[in-house]
From TrEMBL:
InterPro entries given in the database record: Cyt_P450, Cyt_P450_E_grp-I, Cyt_P450_sf
PANTHER family: CYTOCHROME P450
GO MF term set: heme binding; iron ion binding; monooxygenase activity; oxidoreductase activity, acting on paired donors, with incorporation or reduction of molecular oxygen
Domain of life: Eukaryota
Protein name per its UniProtKB record: Cytochrome P450 family protein
Family classification: Belongs to the cytochrome P450 family.
Gene3D superfamilies from the UniProt entry: Cytochrome P450 (1.10.630.10)
Pfam families assigned to the protein according to its UniProt record, in alphabetical order: p450
CDD domains referenced in this protein's UniProt entry, alphabetically: CYP86A
Keywords: Iron, Metal-binding, Oxidoreductase
Length: 399
């Protein structure tokens, strides 16, 4: 529908549901994400869906609450010591866990689901960076992590809420405390209890003068309330968990499809966050003339913007990697990390992680898709771009 529209924008009407404006027009993106930013918060419908899980964390906050957290988190994310800490965490997780797993798969000629492996890797590292504990999802000698299971359940049920055509069903289930809503409540309770316990113990060790470099310890040292710290680290885990692993899964799939253009690949074709929405506060007109009414959902679509050839005969973001050289493109044409005042805070960290992992893995191993699985994978646009059925690969040592 976007392709068929001359201004890369269409309006969706459904009986009894709010109007949804879907756009892939860079001028409209700049307008909603920057020029008229205050008119396009995430909005109450978003908080309704994710608020039980994300609480007052940065991913679901708006207005003053968001602004306060953004300032706080930008300060922490820009610290050079955090970058050093991230590299240390990556080094250990790659050399002690990821590479040995690939080595043994290579020796046993065992097929590996790289999507699953990368998701486990991402969860381990994001937990170490966010609150300094190790769920050990890549360590078979450790028991299954209840925390990882709870994050999985809470994000899947919250995503299902968002995809439901009418909200009365899940709202009624929540009011009655039954079914999936009961599972969600139990998962959130477990996550809260786990993180509050980490906060309690960390405070004690910090008082004894022991230094920690993770985000949670930095927030405790900053003197913030326990609940705020808890919700902030939940947002960090959610923001950093499936995004980097989705990017790397699609990247490995592309590399194995086109080894000859390996050097030119980017995230343009498979952005990990496929679409993203805001809710208009009041009436407005987008630069292409689309009329917005207060309450409308306005959705932009990075997946659509990366993949097709626009009217000019080039992809919306083709100049990112032209002939192997990198050209800085407007973030409104390449909104993989969003753009404007709310642009992803972990962008640098994500690139650091992905380059580190891609280089460490591809320097030693060559990954080939399982023979016979030549068809294009199916993208499941959950909260992040999931690959249906995983990415089954054969690991060979690079000659
Ligand atoms: C390839 C990997 C990643 C991609 C594609 C990505 C993409 C995005 C996008 C699209 C948003 C905007 C969401 C919205 O406002 O609706 C966002 C926000 C955010 N991201 Fe990332 N992200 C990635 C990795 C990370 C990592 C590793 C972290 C670190 C923990 C992180 C931290 C954040 C935070 C804290 C926000 C909220 C910013 C705010 O609301 O002001 N991200 N990211």
């Amino acid at each position: 529908m976007l392709k068929a529209s001359p201004n890369l924008t269409f309006v969706m009407w459904r009986l009894g549901a709010r109007r949804i404006v879907v756009t892939a027009n860079p001028e409209n993106l700049e307008h909603m994400l920057k020029t008229n930013f205050p008119n396009y918060p995430k909005g109450k419908p978003f908080t309704d869906i994710l608020g039980d899980f994300l609480g007052r964390g940065i991913l679901s906050a708006d207005g003053d609450l968001w602004h306060m957290q953004r300032k706080l988190a930008s300060h922490e994310f820009s610290a050079r010591s955090l970058r050093e800490f991230v590299v240390n965490v990556l080094e250990r997780e790659v050399s002690e866990r990821l590479l040995p797993i690939l080595s043994s798969a290579c020796a046993d000629r065992r097929v590996v689901d790289m999507q699953d492996l990368l998701r486990r890797f991402a969860f381990d590292t994001v937990c170490k960076i966010s609150f300094g504990t190790d769920p050990g999802l890549l360590d078979p000698s450790l028991p299954e992590s209840a925390l990882a299971g709870a994050f999985e359940v809470a994000s899947a049920i919250s995503a299902k809420r968002g995809a439901a055509p009418v909200y009365v069903v899940w709202k009624a289930k929540r009011a009655l405390g039954v079914g999936s809503e009961r599972q969600l409540r139990a998962a959130v309770k477990l996550i809260h209890a786990y993180i509050m316990e980490v906060i309690r113990r960390r405070k004690a060790t910090l008082e004894n003068g022991i230094q920690h470099k993770d985000l949670l310890s930095r927030l405790i040292t900053g003197g913030h309330e326990d609940e705020v710290i808890r919700d902030m680290v939940i947002s960090f885990v959610m923001a950093g968990r499936d995004t980097t692993s989705a990017a790397l899964t699609w990247f490995l799939w592309l590399v194995s499809s086109h080894p000859e253009v390996e050097a030119e690949l980017s995230m343009r074709l498979y952005p990990p966050v496929v679409w993203d929405s805001k809710h208009a506060v009041s009436d407005d007109v987008l630069p292409d003339g689309t009329r917005i009414r207060g309450g409308d959902r306005v959705t932009y679509f990075p997946y659509g913007m990366g993949g097709w050839r626009g009217s000019g005969g080039r992809t919306a973001s083709s100049s990112i990697t032209g002939g192997g050289c990198r050209v800085r493109e407007s973030p409104f044409k390449f909104p993989v990390f969003q753009a404007g005042p709310r642009i992803c805070l972990g962008k640098e960290m994500a690139f650091l992680k992905m380059k580190y992992i891609a280089a460490a893995v591809l320097r030693e191993f060559s990954l080939r898709r399982v023979e016979g699985e030549r068809q294009k994978p199916t993208l499941v646009p959950m909260l992040t771009a999931h690959m249906a059925g995983g990415l089954q690969m054969v690991v060979e040592r690079r000659k």
